[in-house]
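>> received
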Amino acid sequence: MNIVIFGPPGAGKGTQSKFVGNEFDLYQLSTGELLRKEIDNKSKLGLKISSIINSGELVSDLIVSELIEKFISNKIYKNRLIFDGYPRSLSQAENLDNLLKKHGQKIDLALKLSVSLDTVKKRISERLAQENRADDSEEIAVKRYKTYEKSTEPVINYYKKSNLLKVVNGEAKISDINNEIRVLIDAIKG
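>> returned
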């Protein structure tokens, strides 16, 4: 199965994606990780991505699409992907469906981790203290949260219309979120 997990920065997408990956033998495809690897490689593309992210903006669909298709087209990952933080816009959701269809796949479940801006600020400051990520500052987090909220409303409606969307309370304890997600996945597995 292929699953989408989305939510604002600091919602716990990475944590929950790791849980789902381990629990159901799926591969976590984090666009954030893909982008950070490009930045770490200090490639021309990586430098461009770094500039975009550090300004609080989102990286273009074209760049992200190229990075994602490498995984979708790899038979090792066929119907075994968790899309962590992607798609973030209606055009990305449509593009993802087209890429998956091109490679004989589809999305089986879309999970939205719902969290407040206050929770995001708290988690980002904790993550900054632990990981010291360049894209983690309260100012950037607030800007990315607002951008996320504005751009994902059509994505939420897109997956709702497809009967794939399940909203999960991202404010709960990690173990409670894990349990809720496990039940949702077990229900679609049959």
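>> The longest strand covers residues 109-114.
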